[in-house]
Amino acid sequence: MNKSASTEIPFETALKELEAIVRKLEGGTGDLEASITDYVRGTELKEYCQKKLESARLKVESILQAKDGSVTTQPFDNV
Fold first, then answer.
1. What burial class does residue 11 get, using C-beta atoms within 10 Å of its C-beta: 0-12 exposed, 13-18 middle, 19+ buried?
2. What pLDDT, in 10s, does the model give residues 18-67?
3. Angle, to 10 degrees, between the axis of helix 11-27 and the axis of helix 32-64?
4. Which one of 26, 30, 39, 53 is CB 3.0 to 4.6 Å from 34, fit for a cystine?
5. Neighbours of 17 (CB within 10 A)
6. In a 3-state reduction of DSSP, which class is residue 24?
7. Distance between CA atoms of residues 17 and 39, nearest Å
8. Burial level of 49, CB count in 10 A (0-12/13-18/19+)?
9. What is the mean pLDDT of residues 8-21?
10. 35 Cβ partners below 8 Å, 6+ apart?
11. What is the pTM of this model?
12. Is the dihedral of CA 9, 51, 49, 61 positive or negative?
């Protein structure tokens, strides 16, 4: 859990770690300090995953918005 959320990790890895943290926190088995650390990490991972999903959503939108009807893989920031 020492990875910074700002470090590029695969979305799936971040999501699995976030799910594990949520299960652990919901179980209430950790001590207060560990729970606070887990909560902070979970918040970072949640924000990271949301940004990745938003980026993917924008890329899909740019593909769907091709004016001539063709499918393109142009990154959304070049639109």
1. middle
2. 999 999 999 998 899 999 999 999 999 999 999 999 988 877 776 666 66
3. 140
4. 30
5. 19
6. helix
7. 12
8. middle
9. 96
10. 25
11. 0.70
12. negative
